[in-house]
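Task: complex structure prediction.
Instruction: return structure tokens for all chains below.
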Amino acid sequence: MLPDSGHLSPPEFNIPDTNYTNSGQLKVIWLVEGEPSRDSEYQFELQQSMDSDFGKSETLYKGPDYATFLSGLRNGTYYYRVRIVDHAGNPLSDWSTTVSMVVQHHSLFLAYVLLAVGGFVFLLTVGIVVHGFLTTRDESLKNANA
Amino acid sequence: MLHQTAILSPVMGWILIAVLGVLWIALGMYWGRKAKSMEGYMLAGRSVGLALGAATAMATWVTSNTTMLAPQFAFELGIWGMIAYSTASFGLFLFAPLAQRIRRLMPYGYTSGDFVRLRYGKIAWLIFLAISIFYGFTWLISMGMAGGILMNALAGIRYEVGMTAILFVCVVYTLFGGLYAVIGTDYIQSLIILIGIVIVGWGVLTKSDMNAVYTNLSESRPMLLSVLFPAAIMAIFNNLLFGIGEIFHSNVWWSRAFAMRKGVGWKAYILSGIFWFPVPIAAGFIALASGIFNVNVSSPDMVGPLVAARVLGQMGAVVVFVVFFCSLASSIDSLLAATSDLITEDIYRKMIHPSAGEETLRRVSSWIIVGLGVLTWIVCLPRIGTLATVLFFAGPMVGSAIWPIVTGLYWKRANSTGAVFGMLLGTAVGLFAYFEIGWFTASLIGAATSMVTVLVATYLRPAKFDWRRLDESQHHALGAEQ
Amino acid sequence: MTFSVFFVGILIKAALATTAVSAVVLITLLVIDFRKGKVW
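Output:
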């Protein structure tokens, strides 16, 4: 049930204050005070921005879920805030406290080194199998002829 | 809770479970009647043909990990993620010549444990069994949990109930039908999986505009389209080597090599690799379309079912449910059978009761299947999500088994020192890398360490192995019993 | 550097087409095995 005042306390993020990811993915989770109820008449609006003051922001999600999964983000610092809105989009709460996340992908150098090591192990493994296959095929032919 | 609405009604879910469950159990019992001897029960009479052989290898490799994790990989790691996932089929391709070699060297072999014991002796065998059983059991647990979680997410069936239902069905038909039932049901499950993926993939493709998908991704998840996405580039060979390690060492694949008709093994494995290769891309693609259909994904492992249900409605949800049920069942049955074989043959027969007759072995094997099922059920019951990630610890372990297995099959000079230290060092260094650098390096580092160890040991102390010692049927004749 | 829309489109369509062909091949193989009496 919605209180008549129409003013709810804002949701709270359930992620560490300074987030860091080196794969460009993040699960943003938020909670509301009290018992979350499925048939509630409100929904959430989640915004993302590259400025801490949300000068230029985009709405990432508007709906009833309590989380969204982000992936494929580029390097940078991202800020998030969430609030409760009604189905027409009118705010029912203030914005939550802002959380930030730093995306810093692994260095490409490390990626290339691992790619090279992996490629080397893989090629050698293929080599042993192919070589083994060819030589033992002859062996069995010799045995068959003998 | 992060609620996510179930996409099927529980009634529909139960109808599907009942229909599929009864079908598998009935077929398992029917085919099980063919298994008159222990060899029939464990190895389907060693006469499996090409169609069933290729289908069983493919279906077993399509686990929930493929149908669930491939969309997740695409969603997290983008285009490279899908391609990286597909490379797991190289394990099947490379196992093709191995399967032929195994069948020839050990015409009467039963398990991969048999090979390691005869080839490298007792210490290597014990380490190998520890790795194998750890891997098999954690895989089984992750499947059981995935079953419960999926039934819950797709149809709102309670986790404990769904998990119990799928484990029960698989235990019953594996118990009655042995490898005959496993392979027979795998064939039908393969067809259902392939056709289901085409229906869902095609459905999503025709309802979405490729340009719109692309534009949406480049705006909201740009790195997914990037060729230079570091985490995804790192995943490529790690995933590949994890897959090779899994297939090369696991008795799931060895028992199929023993079970296939002479000359069929290598063709079946090549074909299964070709069949499997496009599956992660076809299944992964639907995750990339989530943006244009405004599907909110709160948990990345659910992205596939969510998009399918949103785009194709109830029909799509039913297809997804059936495909998941089949991919889980085709892996759980194989794991139950192959792990039970490994315990029956390598632990019971070789360590506890060497003179056991067929009757006894068959009975022991049945109890082990039931025991494994119950044990899996108990571990799955509390739904400790993090437990499924234990499977990833197996990455460095199985990676470190690649070189001991391959060189053991082809090189006379490969020796037990190399195998023992290859597996131990590979596992240790790989696990270290897991915690110090990240999961995406563990299999790769484990395999590389083991490779170097095996090469050095082979160079320093070359053995001169007599291949005939692998054929246990000749032991008595040769007087070569160890 | 990004994968082009053309590449992504081809990749996905090829994967779907191959999967469909796989199903057909699998059925054909069983029919052949069945005729030769070599299913099991």
